[in-house]
Amino acid sequence: MLDKLFNKLSSNKEKNYIEINSTPNKYVILGASAAGVNAAKTLRQLDPKGNITLISKDEKIYSRCMLHHVISEHRSVESINFVDADFMEKNNIKWIKNTEAKSIDTESKIVNLELEKISYDKLLIATGAKSFVPPIKNAKDGNKIYSLRDIEDVIYIKEKIKDSKKVAIIGAGLIGIDILTSLLDKVNLEVSLIYPNEYILDLQLDKYSAKVYESKFIELGAKLYSSLSVNQIVLDDNKNVKGVELGDNSIVECDLLIIATGVRPNTEIVANTNIEDNRGIVINDKCETTVKDIYAAGDVVGKNAIWPLAVKQGIVAAYNMAGVEKIIDDKFTFKNSMNFAGIPTVSLGIVIPPDDTYDVITRCDKDGYKKFVIRDNVITGFIAQGDISYTGSITYLIKHKVEIPNLRDRVFDIGYADFFSMKENGEFEYSI
Q1: Rounded Cα distance, 99 and 44, in Å
Q2: Pick the CATH number of 2-129+264-321 from 3.50.50.60, 3.40.50.300, 2.40.160.60, 3.90.700.10
Q3: What is the pTM of this model?
Q4: Nearest by Cα to 121 from 7, 27, 195, 259
Q5: What is the pLDDT of residue 415?
Q6: Where in this chain does the record put each FAD/NAD(P)-binding domain (predicted)?
Q7: How far apart are CA 420 and CA 432, in angstroms?
Q8: The domain 145-261 belongs to what CATH superfamily?
Q9: Backbone phi, then psi, for 241, in 5-degree steps?
Q10: Phi, psi of 127 (to 5 degrees)
Q11: What is the arrangement of strands in the sheet containing 241-246, beginning at the earlier edge strand?
């Protein structure tokens, strides 16, 4: 599709989007994950002659969403690479790996590395996010305490877990549950999950759908500790972790601890610049930052950290870097799909109503669980667990705030036919 667009735009004599002059455009991208790699790919398709330099602290390209599968040994590091092995060579991209950018000189348009300086015409910051470790006593001082964000974390965890008998996980968001499920089939390993909330995945699920997963995890051998804060990490005389002291002063024993309490954007690179940072680099609909010719995309912008959004932002940034105006026309980020322990679930929109002006309608039968959150004949939230069919249409209805007459009375019966109408010539069309 991009190739067709490129050919079409190239043939437009009235407006060439890439200047035909003596010097090729110089594009620099910081970060080699979803946003950065997709931006590089798109830039090469839009500007075959441009100079593209990609700088990353990683030595390999891999999907961070899949790291837990490497721990469980269902996948290898190579199999979670989301591009071809010769991607850089095939796309004529200069890849400076194992290197972190230290600072940006926005006036001179230079990225400072440890040993060299790289000049740019257009710069994309896609440096992602880092694990957030809360200020728990001994959390940063003990041995065998890890987070899960980079491939190095996987290597350490896989090595240490060989000699472990009891593993504890702090945090029950998506990362924490990914780690939990990757460990449940380990033989002779006791796994405990600790979280301060009433139920797991409380940003994505409601109490009922979360409890379905919790019951299954307990059935598979996990020990769950909910609604409890953490006082401190207990260490032995050699500073090896030996347990987690909870808010009720009880201790969950462990010889390996994984902290999965969220992430924070990697925005250190914009310190001492005019690039606005408000818990993430601030961007507009074109993925432009507050400094001309500098763009940002992915987790570094501090939005809902989901893969599809990072990919979209990377592509949109690349278009605008190449001089082709494009905006993010889909900002719907309240969508999560998961399949833990063989139980598929989709969560859309606002699944916990903020006040009593919303109607909540649920159904639980042999096919699973469904929940609609409705306000003024508009679906604002939806959960499907078990049978997740028709979620594509529900996503459209929520995203576009489609009003459906008498919705409360027929919410479980709406189908594709409800959104067709007939033109004057007898042709059918969508009416939404």
Answers
A1: 22
A2: 3.50.50.60
A3: 0.86
A4: 27
A5: 59
A6: 26-314
A7: 8
A8: FAD/NAD(P)-binding domain (3.50.50.60)
A9: -65, 135
A10: -85, 5
A11: 230-235, 241-246, 251-253
Is the separation of the CB atoms in 385 and 343 below 8 Å? yes
Q: Is the pLDDT of residue 231 over 90?
A: yes
In the structure encoding, which two tokens stand for residue 113, read together?
């590395």
Residue written as token pair 């043939």: 11
Q: Using alpha carbons, list the distances in angstroms from residue 57 to 24, 94, 156.
A: 26, 14, 18
Number of Cα atoms under 13 Å in the Cβ half of residue 294: 24
pLDDT in tens, 117-150: 999 999 999 999 999 999 999 999 999 999 998 8
Sole residue written with tokens 């705030």: 401
341 close to 324: Cβ distance less than 8 angstroms: no
Give domain 344-430's CATH number out of 3.40.50.300, 3.40.50.360, 3.30.390.30, 3.40.30.10: 3.30.390.30
Asked if the model's pLDDT at residue 6 lies above 50, the reply is no
Domain spans in the chain, listed from the N-terminal domain onward: 2-129+264-321, 145-261, 344-430
CA distance 403 to 20: 49
Task: Count other Cβ atoms within 10 Å, centred on residue 405.
Answer: 8
Task: Please indicate whether the domains covering 2-129+264-321 and 145-261 agree at the CATH topology level.
Answer: yes
